[in-house]
Write a structure and sequence with these properties.
Elements (H helix, E strand, L loop, with lengths): L6 H10 L5 H12 L7 H5 L2 H20 L3 H24 L5 H15 L1 H4 L8 H18 L15 H14 L7 H16 L4 H21 L4 H24 L10 H22 L1
Helix pairs in contact: 2-5, 4-5, 9-11, 10-11, 12-13
Length: about 280
């Protein structure tokens, strides 16, 4: 049987099915998926806005694998995140905006420019703190080049809210708009909690709750705590301890819905005590 494929199609098929094709293979797969005539209808229908939530989700799945030290999963999660970059770059290429190589070159240029102590003439005999200060100086110059005049300009709207709060507060702190210590922040937390208690409507309560969360993020910054990581850890702890409640009830043939709050509180305290004892024994 004759092969009616074009030479370009033959090369494309060979690359797509090459298990060692690397980045060129992935880029070609993405191009084929987006082909308006022969591609996947779902992939063809997507745009930047529809794919952005998946990009955020994949970034969190990378963080989750790292937090769980699930190294076998991490390779796949990093691949999923890389695919998101390839997807966005392909859509940009179709519009004549830029391609994947432009993305890679832009990042390479940025890293070289931001590390003169590695790739330039600056001395690399600096403390990590001095390198962070230098980094911020370079980024400030980059923002100026982009005509970002306001102190808070350029803090991405699409960031998770807690992360964006911390970034906004860091920017403000650079120009002196900051509490001098955690004491003032904690006083403000007490004040905001009281205002939340006194809220007169659901809308007012939502506003005061937001203010309280914002100040909590500020406290995390002052204490050098990542609030996103802290909340993820708290979520994991809650999940773990509630699972122990379910296990304990199951041994009695019961479900949480069959239990009382008092009984579940007792089982929670028992799970908490076991964890503390195990932690003390390991130290």
């Amino acid at each position: 049987m004759s092969d009616n494929r074009s030479e370009a199609q033959i090369r494309s098929d060979a690359l797509v099915h090459n298990p060692k094709g690397g980045m060129p293979r992935l880029i070609e797969i993405m191009r084929r998926l987006r082909d308006p005539e022969t591609g996947c209808p779902w992939d063809v229908a997507q745009d930047f806005a529809s794919i952005a939530p998946y990009t955020i989700e994949e970034a969190y799945e990378v963080a989750d694998a790292i937090e769980r030290e699930a190294w076998d999963e991490l390779r796949g999660e990093l691949g999923d995140l890389l695919f998101q970059s390839v997807f966005h770059a392909q859509m940009a290429s179709e519009r004549g905006l830029f391609g994947f190589n432009d993305v890679a070159d832009t990042m390479s240029d940025k890293m070289v420019a931001r590390h003169p102590h590695v790739f330039g003439a600056d001395s690399n005999e600096k403390s990590p703190e001095q390198q962070v200060a230098d980094w911020e100086t370079i980024k400030a110059a980059e923002r100026a080049d982009r005509a970002e005049k306001g102190v808070l300009d350029g803090v991405a709207m699409g960031l998770p809210a807690l992360m964006r709060a911390v970034k906004l507060q860091k920017r403000a702190a650079r120009v002196g708009f900051d509490w001098p210590s955690t004491d003032e922040v904690i006083d403000k937390i007490v004040e905001e909690a009281q205002e939340l208690r006194e809220a007169e409507s659901p809308q007012h309560a939502e506003e005061e709750f937001g203010d309280l969360l914002f100040v909590m993020a500020n406290l995390a910054r002052h204490m050098d705590i990542d609030p996103e990581a802290a909340l993820r850890a708290a979520n994991a702890k809650f999940t773990r301890r509630f699972g122990q409640i379910e296990d304990a009830l199951a041994t009695e043939g019961k479900h949480p819905s069959d239990s009382t709050l008092e009984e579940m509180d007792r089982l929670w305290d028992a799970a908490k005590a076991r964890e503390k004892a195990a932690k003390a024994a390991s130290e």
